[in-house]
Amino acid sequence: MQQNASDPATTCDDTPLPPPLVAAPVEVFANGATGLTRDDSIAAEVPIALVFNGISHAVMMATPQDLSAFALGFALSEGLIDSMADCRGIDVFTAADAASCEVQLEISAACFARLKEKRRALAGRTGCGVCGIDSLQALDLLPERVARQPWLDQLDVASVLKAVNGMQPLQRLNAEAGSLHAAGWASPGGELLMLMEDVGRHNALDKLIGQLAEQKRLGEPGFVVMSSRASYELVRKCARMGIGALATVSAPTALAVQIAQQAQIRLWGLCRGTRAVRYTA
Fold first, then answer.
1. Which of 2, 4, 142, 257 has a CA positioned 20 to 30 A from the CA of residue 97?
2. Region 135-149 average pLDDT
3. DSSP 8-state class, residue 154
4. Catalytic residue positions?
5. Longest dimension (CA), the chain
6. What are the domain boundaries of the chain?
7. pLDDT in tens, 198-251
8. What angle do CA 83, 144, 53 make, to 5 degrees?
9. CB neighbours of 278 closer than 8 A, spacing ≥ 6?
């Protein structure tokens, strides 16, 4: 079984990355007893600036590890680049105060021209609070249709639950801090092959997609499992990457189900213990 692979302890300029977990004193109260003071691990939530060809595109709050995979997965799942070949290089930097990070990506001229055009189209809008956009049209709710893969019809509930139930032993950061989401990649038989963690569920999925791209495994038979609910943006990212199935621990939203139906993605939710619900065929 392959576990999650983290970034090196330093960035490309040998500056240490901020730690993914921070120690802090807390008081623990249980069963009416007086609070017990101890040191506890708390998940770090750090601003990560994503810069494409020298132009800042987004600042995401994320766990400061696996940042190269995160940036690559974000670029792919958001349609900023079309394939791994469009990414010419990735460099990770830590700010002087170690309170933030910057990931610089060099992308192809064609993708960069498209990105600049998209930025011009969004200029001047008043944001509604959803990713800084002001209309449902800008949400891009028309997903690609995922080609039906032969193995998908053989994907049964036992394989789905095997993969979902296999996440917890690999969630090493969450075991210490209790506040991180996980995104895992499973074989059609339910073997969990890879797992990435982040305080943001969409960040965890982007890290997983980026890791698959780096290992040239995008397109191989398999499905995504997540420790969160299934929200629309997770299904949208899977559709863009041609991933045919998504299974989550919590329930999906109605919009997530709608997009999964449009994209022909098999969506499972409430996958807990021996029970799961399939929302789309």
1. 4
2. 77
3. G
4. 128
5. 63
6. 150-278
7. 999 999 999 999 999 999 999 999 999 999 999 999 999 999 999 999 999 999
8. 35
9. 157, 266, 267, 268
